[in-house]
Specification:
Number of domains: 2
Protein name: Integrase
Helix content: 40-55%
Strand order of the largest sheet: 1-2-3
GO biological process, one term: DNA recombination
CATH class of the largest domain: Mainly Alpha
Keywords: DNA integration, DNA recombination, DNA-binding
Mean pLDDT: 84
InterPro entries: CB, DNA_brk_join_enz, Integrase-like_cat_sf, Integrase_catalytic, Integrase_recombinase_N, Integrase_SAM-like_N, Tyrosine_recombinase_XerCD
GO molecular function: DNA binding
Oligomer: single chain
């Protein structure tokens, strides 16, 4: 599979890495990232990475840390090199020397329901309102919204077919009646304009043959948030975060939310329990149940 880096000669070692990833159905984006990160290690070595030693691996990670490479980036490189060492080179001894760095996860930014409504109403076109409503109403990632096709909307089963989810996984997302109504309005409007077709993209870009870009969707969210006077930094993923948090606040089981979001691990979904403020406010403290601090009425002024 040599289309990942077109017009660039591919060495036998790089081709073997590409073949190993293709055999495991890695996405094109993941393959590009792994090739880039293995190349980063090769640039550090200044020789072929198949000649690396355990000391080379240790020195590379030390150099990355001293250079101030962000922890998430370092961990991404570790994932790429572990795959390369363990599968392409069959050197598990090198893979074991790679160290993942723990780092605290920031709590996701979540909008209130009123803020979401203001943001959606502040969009400047029906297409943009529909796209952001899918992100919030179905909890889709921005890339999943961009890659939806008209045929992915299943109004009979009230499902949205997500064919290009994270890691290439397929899943069904929820389709609410209100969202279906909005999407039908967008279909009639877009079809009348000649930009929507039954076999085409649900949210086409500047040219109907290409989908809207994730960058454009990010700009739409930022501009709508500014118009809605939302001061916090938000993006398309904020709508997905808000979807999950609002479901938790409505007492939907976290395992069901995990399926709706397409999370591989439950602990990823459980992070939203930390920002579900309505759930926290609804809990009665055991201190209150003691009844020993009942406020006394202040006598009326004479």
């Amino acid at each position: 599979m040599t289309t990942i880096l077109p017009n660039v000669p591919v060495s036998p070692l790089r081709q073997k890495l590409i073949d190993d990833m293709t055999m495991r159905h890695f996405s094109a984006a993941t393959q590009r990232n792994y090739i880039r990160d293995v190349g980063r290690f090769a640039s550090f070595l200044r020789r072929s990475p198949d000649t690396a030693t355990t000391e080379d691996v240790r020195q590379f990670q030390l150099a990355q840390s001293e250079a101030g490479v962000p922890v998430p980036t370092m961990n991404t490189v570790v994932s790429a090199l572990r795959f390369f060492f363990a599968n392409t080179l069959d050197r598990p001894d090198l893979a074991r020397k790679l160290v993942r760095v723990s780092h605290p996860r920031n709590l996701p930014v979540v909008l209130s329901r009123d803020e979401v409504a203001r943001l959606l109403n502040a969009t400047t076109s029906l297409k943009h309102q529909a796209a952001l409503s899918v992100a919030y109403g179905a909890g889709l990632r921005v890339g999943e919204v961009a890659m939806l096709k008209v045929r992915d909307i299943d109004s009979e089963r009230m499902m949205i077919r997500v064919e290009r989810g994270k890691g290439g996984r397929y899943r069904n997302a929820m389709l609410s009646p209100d969202l279906l109504t909005l999407l039908r309005q967008w279909w009639h409007d877009g079809h009348r304009q000649g930009v929507l077709h039954r076999d085409g993209w649900l949210f086409p870009g500047q040219y109907a043959l290409k989908p809207i870009s994730t960058r454009q969707l990010y700009r739409v969210v930022v501009e709508a948030a500014h118009a809605a006077e939302i001061t916090r930094r938000v993006g398309p993923h904020t709508l997905r975060h808000s979807f999950a948090t609002h479901l938790l606040e409505d007492s939907v089981d976290v395992r069901i939310i995990q399926v709706l979001l397409g999370h591989a691990k439950l602990e990823t979904t459980a992070l939203f329990t930390k920002v579900a403020t309505r759930t926290v406010r609804a809990i009665i403290s055991p201190l209150d149940k003691l009844g020993i601090f009942v406020p006394t009425e202040t006598p009326p002024a004479p």
